[in-house]
Write a structure and sequence with these properties.
By secondary structure, the protein is mainly α. Helix content is about 45%, strand content about 10%. A hairpin with a 2-residue loop joins β3 and β4. α2 runs parallel beside α6, α5 runs parallel beside α8 and α6 packs across α10. It binds iron/sulfur cluster (3 copies). The site of one iron/sulfur cluster (SF4) has 14 residues, from α11.
């Protein structure tokens, strides 16, 4: 895809073209999406390799694993354990702290775009959904994204009240990760249902309106160092919002948005998944990754 020659909305770009971009000098190179998908597939390749070859590089599943023996635990899952059992083992504290520190530096919801296996599946569903909408087979349906906070409270309350890890039954991230490593399970039926809802009813509905894991990483994202930075070369064409999973974070790119007189503004909203889609479609190059701590990343 070449953002300098056409407005690359999701609707007008063939799916496979999104894996290669043409830069300002006319050179073709792998896109950010290519590197994201490679990251997701690579992590699960390590899980599979560790399990079948018994080499103990990355063991477990994406929600709770050991990387060369170091525990890595999803913060929301750790919180659910605490709510259910009213205690949190030392390994869980260490594993969760490691994850939180990592994402404080690299961007909270980067987990969604760079690690989560359902994120990848959901992007495929999104493309099919957009195609069906463009052919007028289905209607576009969007809802208030803030409903996800209600689901976060609901799952947490049920866990606290029951002493049972209620969300684990519906945790499609864990279900998909487990299936990739250990094979088919009946729980995948639930993932298929969610996927079909996203394809035929509401695009990326689970990630946008339900997933408490995404909400928890979003909380880290608000204070994370890694951000997307916008600058005032923007002509408010709206293409970045068109491709964004969470377009409400790109209010700054709208005409008459209040920039407080600044020429460069960080997208502070923790819902940003740092997917880089907006970066890859902005024909003025006015959206870029920027790390607040020393610009190291
Ligand atoms: S919102 Fe949940 S399911 Fe969606 S990409 Fe993020 S962690 Fe994965
Ligand atoms: S940042 Fe501005 S110029 Fe760039 S894609 Fe978004 S609206 Fe268009
Ligand atoms: S603002 Fe950009 S990087 Fe963030 S979620 Fe939207 S498209 Fe992705």
């Amino acid at each position: 895809m070449n953002k300098y020659e056409e407005r690359c909305t999701i609707g007008n770009i063939p799916f496979w073209d999104t894996f290669v971009v043409t830069d300002g000098k006319g050179k073709r190179k792998p896109s950010i999406r290519f590197w994201r998908w490679l990251s997701i597939i690579g992590f699960h390749f390590l899980f599979v390799l560790s399990y079948y070859a018994d080499i103990q590089i990355l063991e477990g599943i994406i929600s709770g694993s050991r990387f060369f023996g170091f525990h890595l635990i999803d913060p929301f899952i750790a919180f659910q354990v605490f709510l259910a059992y009213h205690e949190i083992p030392t390994n869980l504290i260490l594993g969760t702290s490691t994850i939180i520190i990592f994402y404080l530096f690299f961007g909270g919801r980067a987990y969604c775009s760079w690690i989560c296996p359902y994120g990848l599946i959901s992007e495929i569903g999104e493309k099919i959904n957009r195609t069906l909408i463009s052919k007028k087979i289905i209607k576009e349906r969007n809802f208030n994204h803030k409903v996800k906070y209600l689901f976060w409270i609901l799952f947490s309350s049920l866990t606290f009240a029951s002493g049972y890890l209620v969300f684990e039954t519906f945790n499609i991230v864990g279900i998909v990760s487990r299936a990739i490593i250990y094979g088919w399970s009946a729980a995948l039926s639930f993932v298929i249902i969610v996927f079909l809802v996203e394809v035929f009813y509401s695009q990326r509905a689970w990630c946008r309106y339900v997933c408490p894991i995404g909400v928890t990483y979003s909380a880290i994202g608000w204070v994370s160092a890694e951000k997307i930075e916008w600058d005032d070369r923007c002509d408010h064409c709206g293409v970045c919002s068109n491709v964004c999973l969470v377009p409400h974070v790109l209010e700054i790119a709208k005409k008459n948005a209040d920039t407080h007189g600044k020429s460069h503004v960080f997208i502070e909203n923790g819902d940003c998944t740092l997917c880089g889609r907006c970066v890859e479609v902005c024909h003025h190059d006015c959206l870029n990754f920027k790390n607040k701590i020393g610009g190291l990343v």
